[in-house]
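Inputs:
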Amino acid sequence: MTVGALTAAQAGLVSCEACQLLARPASVEEPGYCRRCGEKLEFRRHASIQITWALIVAATVCYFPAMALPVLNTTQLGVSEADTILGGVAFLYTSGSWPLALVVLVASVMIPLGKLAALVYLLLVVQRGWVGNNYDRTRLYRMVEFIGRWSMLDVFVDTFTVALVQLDPLVSVAPGPGVLFFAAVVVLTMLAAECFDPRLIWDSAARSPVPNG
Amino acid sequence: MSSPLASPVIACADCDLLQQVPPLRPGAKARCLRCGYVLAKRSAAPRDLPLALAFAAAVMFVLANSIPLMDLSVVGRTSSTTIVGGAYQMWVEGEPITGALVAFCAVIAPGGYIAFMLSVLLAARRTPVPHWAAELLRWAIHFQVWSMLEVMMLGILVALIKIAELATVTPGIGVYAVGALLVLFPAITVTFDPHEIWNRVVWLDGDGLPSSPVRVSVAEPQR
């Protein structure tokens, strides 16, 4: 079976991102709204590359304070102690639950970094027109999209620790400034993944069908 | 070649390739030839099963949000929290943005998803499906991305293990309701076939809409 290489955009059609209805818009600049579901129609997500870059830069900037600043302040019998995310991982490890320490380490430290690296790679692929395996690149994008939500783990851990441990004057826990930066990293990387348009990966392949080194 | 209306042409959401989706057997999936994206699937019971699951999810969601998730006790002092209570505590302890984010991802997004899905599935019991149901289904799809109950559940588990060092923790009924939702949400997604509803929706034919939809095969993929 031969695979046709015609995309909707090449055929002058725009596919609705919500309901996948194909429409032939009167104007390429302003395709309008989907008549079936009301979604705004776009050939490619608006300013995808610029917005994704901006969100990645913002997330990277937030990543450092998220790791360095404390996320929890524990006050036990008048003695205060601040914990960073890595401190929380170390605590879980020393208290004997190393599988959970690994889960938190992967979700909070590795996944945000991996997402940023993957998105930067995909953006460079699109901008530089690097020739390569677009199938695997699309799978990488889907993985970034799917796995991104798990970084919220530490935000939920901190929230429920704070909510439960309110036993003044024995022990109480308050959130630290790191939580906000960490939540920002998660939301910004999730938005970056949503703003990046995977169809651009295939568009660049269509533009340079012959490998040019 | 089969009739274009019988096997609709759609563009892959991930790579934009135009292709014809053949008629599918119940339970079958069609994948994009080029990138492997699931273009279409056909559920065995597309109307009743997701509706029943959505009803169950609505009941569990109310329970999960009204009954405390767990109780904490240490030398006679106790405290307990619900999901919203957790977000509220974050807010009052000086992290309002994080609190709002937690409330959105753990309450508003999953709640909106269930409410919208329930309305859409009830409206889809008759044909044609009214246009407002299409708008709600679109919103349900957008909310689904930010609904993070499974992440929250793992977060609660990690928090419990951390706190277990300090005090005695007793899981409440709320946690079991969240556990039920963790099963019900993917079950709705698996049994629900959005295209079964999209195909029966009333289109908006206002004059202010510049796009004219294409139903038939306008462009065959190049050979």
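The longest strand of chain A covers residues 72-76. Flag for discussion at group meeting.
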